Amino acid sequence: MAQNVSMEDFEALLNESFEIDTPEEGSVVKGKVLAIEAGQAIIDVGYKMEGRVDLKEFANPGEAPTVAVGDEVEVFLDRVENARGEAVISRDKARREEAWDRLEKAYAAEERVEGAIFGRVKGGFTVDLGGAVAFLPGSQVDVRPVRDAGPLMGLKQPFQILKMDRRRGNIVVSRRAILEESRAEQRAEVIGNLTEGQEVDGVVKNITEYGAFVDLGGVDGLLHVTDMAWRRVNHPSEILTIGETIKVQVIKINKETHRISLGMKQLQDDPWDAVEAKFPLESVHTGRVTNITDYGAFVELEPGVEGLVHVSEMSWTKKNVHPGKIVSTSQEVEVMVLEIDSAKRRVSLGLKQTMRNPWEVFAETHPEGTPVEGEVKNITEFGLFVGLEGEIDGMVHLSDLSWEERGEDAIQNYHKNDMVKAVVTEVDVEKERISLSIKALDDSFSGAVEGVKRGSIVTVTVTAIEDGGIEVEYEGAKSFIRRSDLSRDRAEQRPERFQIGDHIDVRVTNVDQKTRRLGLSIKAREIAEEKEAVEQYGSSASGASLGDILGAALKTGDE
């Protein structure tokens, strides 16, 4: 029985010695390079075990293998023995295990790790971190998008571990975080040496619609388009090119955000300092149209000095028209200085003031009574608008269309674009109004009544008989005698006692050139005749009757 126990103890001790001496599969063991042949290194891992490892496993990506006979190396033992009786070992797996231990410590301490980009994969790149392979997303390569990553391949450089999972074998790193940190340190150093108002040299790195980014030696500053020149700059590319070295002034530094505002025009004399002396009020200058808006046009008087020609100051005649229909960009125009506000850096200009007021010119060249001819531009309910010289319009009121017809009827005879003749009756320069008359062209009335004046006795012809009186004609001019003016005797104030074609002597009571009417009266003629007879042959106070006086007058007339 004792012998049996001693045999069991011996067996246990033997097994225990085997377990101690034989390395555990899946662990990292040390070995010695015995030989190098056929692209492989033969390594003695002890315990009378040898294995083979491809030489490429001893090389970093993009480099030649660095291993020689006699070197001591660590390898990963996959299996103690394969079919050929050799140990299955791996240098890559040993390096990976070693790297993971090292990387986990660096990740926990938020330390940088060194690696090299060696491959491109979807969405980014692969990085060798000394045995462990990590993923570098494309967005984490640089602070700006990288078009060509060739110069970065195989280059040893620091990375920051963003995330790692040993169980899944995932590591995500960033090169951008390192660059931003270094850049922040560099920016802080450069900004610390800058002061507002300082003049510095910079290189144009990028140009945008609103300005340009200028490298001041490790830190970028923004040169806004409005600070490039005193004149209007439509796009920064007009005066800057990428890579150009320029002198700028530091306008403002934000210590918290590290933003720097730069200016170029601040290094030049401000043209506004001499504006009032160079461009006195009411002086006329030639300028170039730089910009056109809905409310007017900007005109450059000299580089850096622009003035606004408001739409109301662009033309004497073109009202409610877009400025672009009067002037065009880059056109040279003559303008008058109307107002200057140096504090607000504003100059008000006038375009129409450089030309004479067309209403003043028209008033000088077309006094009242001047005949004119023009095209009907518009027809309204109150008259016609006729185009005249100088691109201005005159108006013919309804009441000035015809002597014979009512204005509402006479206007139906006219159409847009008709050519008409008229007479100037009034010009109001201040209100920019010209009154015309078409009916004033008919001067037959003046010829007919020439020499006729109030109190004259004329012979007329009856042309119509109406209830209220009779219509008569004198030398082509028509007039109307009311019933009350047909006789001194009320009983004789009957229109029907006259016939069309009768010739009647009447007294002129009024000559109205404006309405082309004669005021006529039979009654006034009779009263005038009676008065004349009384004065000549006696008076009612002498006892003579009216019949006696008229009889004597008639008798004298017969003799």
TrEMBL record:
<feature type="domain" description="S1 motif">
    <location>
        <begin position="26"/>
        <end position="92"/>
    </location>
</feature>
<dbReference type="Pfam" id="PF00575">
    <property type="entry name" value="S1"/>
</dbReference>
<keyword id="KW-0687">Ribonucleoprotein</keyword>
<dbReference type="InterPro" id="IPR003029">
    <property type="entry name" value="S1_domain"/>
</dbReference>
<feature type="domain" description="S1 motif">
    <location>
        <begin position="455"/>
        <end position="523"/>
    </location>
</feature>
<dbReference type="InterPro" id="IPR012340">
    <property type="entry name" value="NA-bd_OB-fold"/>
</dbReference>
<feature type="domain" description="S1 motif">
    <location>
        <begin position="197"/>
        <end position="265"/>
    </location>
</feature>
<comment type="function">
    <text>Binds mRNA; thus facilitating recognition of the initiation point. It is needed to translate mRNA with a short Shine-Dalgarno (SD) purine-rich sequence.</text>
</comment>
<feature type="domain" description="S1 motif">
    <location>
        <begin position="369"/>
        <end position="439"/>
    </location>
</feature>
<keyword id="KW-0694">RNA-binding</keyword>
<protein>
    <recommendedName>
        <fullName>30S ribosomal protein S1</fullName>
    </recommendedName>
</protein>
<keyword id="KW-0677">Repeat</keyword>
<dbReference type="InterPro" id="IPR035104">
    <property type="entry name" value="Ribosomal_protein_S1-like"/>
</dbReference>
<dbReference type="InterPro" id="IPR050437">
    <property type="entry name" value="Ribos_protein_bS1-like"/>
</dbReference>
<dbReference type="InterPro" id="IPR000110">
    <property type="entry name" value="Ribosomal_bS1"/>
</dbReference>
<keyword id="KW-0689">Ribosomal protein</keyword>
<feature type="domain" description="S1 motif">
    <location>
        <begin position="110"/>
        <end position="176"/>
    </location>
</feature>
<feature type="domain" description="S1 motif">
    <location>
        <begin position="282"/>
        <end position="352"/>
    </location>
</feature>
<dbReference type="GO" id="GO:0005840">
    <property type="term" value="C:ribosome"/>
</dbReference>
<comment type="similarity">
    <text>Belongs to the bacterial ribosomal protein bS1 family.</text>
</comment>
